[in-house]
Amino acid sequence: AMAMQVGRIVAASPIAFNYDRWPQGELPPQVGDIVWFARYAGGIFEGADGREYRIVKDKDIGAVIEA
Question: What is the pTM for the complete model shown?
Fold first, then answer.
């Protein structure tokens, strides 16, 4: 499970994706987007709903995957 590199954003901090040099004209990833992230980034935990979630740093997300 730690080698998986694609996931859906289910929540984000209000200060996530707040870089000084965000690519001009590009929207940062939003809740609901499917994203590619760095291999082995973050950590996995079990939520109150019994599902597994991964917490990753915003800088570990490399791309939004178009549906």
Answer: 0.80
